[in-house]
Amino acid sequence: MKKTKNMKKGNQLSALCLFTTLLLIIQTEIYPLLTVWAIAAGFRFIDKSMRMFIVTTLVFGFGFFLYGYINTHWIADIKPDEIRIILNRLSLIVILVLLIVISLIYRLPIMHYWQKPKWDEPIHIPFIWAGFRQTKVSSFLYKAMLINLIVFVPFIVNLSWSFFQEIWWFIIIFSILNAALEEYIWRGVLLSRFTESLGSRWAVVTTSIGFGLQHYSLGFSWISCLAFSVGGFFFGALTVQSRSIVPAVIWHILFNGLMVLSGVIVS
Predict the structure, then answer these.
(1) Measuring CA to CA, which residue among 104, 112, 102 is closest to residue 59?
(2) Which of 266, 265, 253 shows the shortest CA–CA distance to 149?
(3) Is residue 67 a contact partner of residue 94, using CB atoms and an 8 Å limit?
(4) How far, in Å, CA of 57 to CA of 73, rounded?
(5) Which pLDDT score is estimated for 1?
(6) Which class for 122: exposed (0-12), middle (13-18), buried (19 or more C-beta within 10 A)?
(7) What sign does the dihedral 52-58-63-68 (CA atoms) show?
(8) Which residues are bridge partners to 136 per DSSP?
(9) Is 132 exposed, middle or buried (0-12, 13-18, 19+ CB in 10 A)?
């Protein structure tokens, strides 16, 4: 039993390393390292329990490469910035379609978290699975969103009415589109596939770090990517605990809107 447990943990750690290093290689364009990555992935593929994870990671990596190519070569010079950003977010559909196709090929449910949220499910504050007090999913979401509002207030108090009139349509489209596509990819399909191979908590950790790292392609610093990984952890853990991506989508929409209003997305 102890040996089996250790082997499982080894799979989880190697999966985390494989997924994150592939994202780093694609974004930094150090493609010679793909040979090393492929050899390591090949060794892990020998383990039957890791095969679906490797296949999913390869498909995601290919989709992420296509997504980057589209944004670098096809829409990089489109003006105004608001239209370019919306097209950038729309291009995430390439990744999503490939992940859905591979799920259908293997006759797997596309995602496990597309259902009515369990709003009364117990959850801990502040780390969802651990904390100093217990509450419900609905209460946690309300408090988390309220904290986000309070944190962003200093950055949006000087927002002019004219700026809001110019940007309101972008706030709505970007917030909903970005939240829906990112959550469907990361807390929907990827979290579902990785949970089957790694267990829910390691799947949350892996997708959270990957979610944060992929923001480097959007022009954010590595420090900012770390912050996004923390946010991804809360989105992922909340999804697992509520059995639905709906709470994460709602929270993500609010966060996106606040980022636009604070000038992080467009200024």
Answers:
(1) 102
(2) 253
(3) yes
(4) 24
(5) 36
(6) exposed
(7) positive
(8) 122
(9) exposed
First CA to last CA distance, the chain: 56
Output phi, psi for 125, to 5 deg.
-110, 130
Please, which pLDDT band fits residue 156 given cuts at 50, 70 and 90? confident
42: Cβ–Cβ under 8 A, 6 or more apart, which residues? none
Structure-block tokens of residue 7? 């082997």
How do strand 131-136 and strand 122-126 relate by DSSP bridges?
A: antiparallel
Task: Return the H-helix or E-strand segment holding 32.
Answer: none
Q: In the structure encoding, which two tokens stand for residue 122, read together?
A: 């117990």
How far is the C-alpha of 103 from the C-alpha of 157, rounded, in Å?
45
Q: Residue 131 and residue 127: Cα distance in Å, rounded?
A: 6
Task: Return the higher-pLDDT residue of 223 and 163.
Answer: 223
**pLDDT of 154 higher than 50:** yes
Are 85 and 75 in contact by the 8 Å Cβ rule? The answer is: no
The tokens describing 242, both together, are 């509520």
Q: What is the pTM of this model?
A: 0.94
Do 41 and 18 touch, CB atoms closer than 8 A? yes
Query: Token pair for residue 264?
Result: 């992080």
